[in-house]
Specification:
The protein is α+β, with helices and mostly antiparallel strands. It has three domains: 163 residues; 109 residues, Helix Hairpins, CATH 1.10.287.130; 163 residues, Heat Shock Protein 90 (2-Layer Sandwich). It is built from eleven helices and twelve strands. Strands 2-1-5-4-3 form a five-stranded antiparallel β-sheet. The chain has a five-stranded mixed β-sheet with strand order 7-9-10-12-11. Helix 8 runs parallel beside helix 11 and helix 9 crosses helix 10. The longest helix has 56 residues.
């Protein structure tokens, strides 16, 4: 049963729940207020009756019962203010009625309280405190609408007792009338409150309709949807701002994901192409040898050289791909302060070993040669920067004549926005890079047309690796023109 009620409650809308709970709370407050007011009114009315009874009893307890009626009729005796209907009785010690006086408005003698049980002992037990009796003359906490409120006291100077009684019907009727009025007013208040609360909640939650509409649109794939910005610091305003921020993040992530997928597809396509070309060459020479087409020793030697050359190309390509993969995994750089002159000298020596005819010099940005023991320090990852120099020198060697000089220019005193930067330039004197292609050369597998041959063309990954390393250092790399002709690759890294 409880589970069914719980499920039914869960199916109710938030607006209805809030309205129902609010009306229920108001209803409880109205009920408690009404009951408290009735209780206070009842206490007040009873206290008023008790005051009239005790004051009247105190006055009449000293009077001669036989002369009471005459003294009242001739106005010789002034009683405290009493309601229009009252009952006064003088009783003997055993409770028998001696004299009973009924007000003119009190009706006939049959409509009087029952005092047959009021013995002297009974009267003394009341201690002069007002009480209520039922139709049988028995003390009762609630005598009903036809009950009486009375006080019984011993007579002063003689045997017997005095009873003064007032009907409780008028008070009961007043309380009942107030209850009806209060109930009607409370019901009207609940209806008006419920309507007002419903309208208020509906107005306050109206922006959630837009949230729902936007969420549905996003679910259907339209991530450009945004909520209307609201002024102020309300819950709805903060919710709209938070959701818009989240949607901005989702849209950016989706765009990045799409861009990444495009890059991956292009990467896989280019890698497949780069690997297929040497594999086709290797397979071709292998088939020629298997078929016996290569009969002369010099033909076999040439084929083996070509197979070895293509294998070396594939090995270099795979190693470059592995390097990029490790970089994409965002392994932490080990930044230490090193002397860039020493790195440049080592890289120049390695490049000279690969091509003994190549002249490589190390200079400052103005072209002044630097000695091998000069110091230009920067906080970088040594292994990564060694690879940057190696790839930049290899690129310069590939695109410049063998007799053309290559310069490595270094400086760590340049500042941008008050921050020191390491500047590394590798300058060649070849054909240069067309201006419209200077940004593309850093893309993976991109090569200028004149390098796309198996003899001189690289894998198209060297500058992409350099760009990735520089970016991980928080730096930038650009391609410019060397004065006098050629290409200059300029790296700027925070020192």
């Amino acid at each position: 049963m409880n589970s069914k009620l719980g499920l039914a409650w869960e199916r109710i809308s938030l607006r209805t729940k809030l309205t129902a709970l609010s009306v229920a709370i108001i209803g409880v407050l109205v009920m408690v207020s009404s009951l408290g007011t009735i209780a206070l009114l009842r206490t007040y009315l009873q206290a008023n009756l008790d005051g009239q009874l005790t004051s009247t009893a105190a006055t009449l307890s000293h009077e001669d019962p036989t002369q009471l009626e005459d003294r009242l009729a001739t106005h010789q005796l002034q009683l405290p203010s009493l309601p229009s209907d009252f009952y006064i009785a003088y009783l003997d010690t055993d409770g028998s009625l001696l004299i009973g006086l009924v007000s003119s408005a009190g009706g006939n003698s049959n409509d009087v309280p029952n005092t047959s049980n009021f013995s002297s002992k009974y009267v003394l037990a009341t201690k002069g405190i007002p009480f209520e009796v039922n139709g049988k003359g028995q003390i009762s906490d609630d005598a009903g609408t036809r009950g009486w409120r009375m006080v019984a006291v011993p007579l002063s100077g003689m045997d017997g007792s005095l009873v003064v009684a007032l009907p409780t019907g008028a008070n009961s009727a007043l309380l009942a009338q107030y209850g009806l009025i209060g109930g009607g007013f409370g019901a009207l208040l609940l209806i008006l409150s419920g309507l007002s609360i419903w309208l208020t909640i509906n107005s306050a939650l109206k922006p959630l309709n837009e949230v729902e509409r936007t969420a549905e649109a996003v679910t259907e794939g339209d991530i450009s949807q945004r909520l209307i910005e609201q002024d102020g610091d309300t819950e709805i305003a903060r919710l709209n701002r938070s959701l818009n921020t989240m949607l901005d993040g989702i849209e950016t992530a989706m765009q990045d994901r799409s861009k990444t997928l495009d890059q991956m597809r292009r990467f896989v396509s280019d890698a497949s192409h780069e690997l297929r070309t040497p594999l086709v060459s290797v397979r071709g020479y292998a088939e020629l040898y298997r078929m016996g087409a290569l009969k002369k020793p010099e033909q076999i030697g040439e084929a083996m050289e070509r197979i070895e050359s293509e294998a070396i190309r594939m090995t270099g390509l795979v190693e470059s791909l592995l390097t990029l993969t490790r970089m994409d995994e965002s392994t932490k750089l080990e930044l230490t302060k090193i002397n860039m002159i020493s790195l440049a000298v080592d890289a120049a020596k390695d490049a000279s070993v690969a091509d003994g005819r190549r002249k490589i010099v190390i200079t400052d940005l103005n072209g002044t040669p630097l000695s091998d023991d000069a110091v230009i320090e920067a906080k970088v990852d040594a292994n990564s920067m060694r690879q940057v120099l190696t790839n930049l020198l290899a690129n310069a060697s590939r695109f410049s004549p063998v007799d053309a000089q290559i310069e490595i220019a270094l400086d760590n005193k340049s500042k941008v926005d008050g921050r020191k930067f390491l500047i590394l330039e590798v300058r060649d004197h070849g054909e240069g890079i067309p201006e419209q292609l200077r940004e593309k050369v850093f893309e993976r597998f991109y090569r200028v047309d004149n390098s796309r041959n198996s003899e001189t063309g690289g894998s198209g990954l060297g500058l992409a690796i350099v760009s990735t390393i520089v970016a991980r250092h928080g730096g930038t790399i650009i391609a410019t023109e060397t004065p006098g002709g050629g290409a200059t690759l300029r790296v700027a890294i925070p020192a």
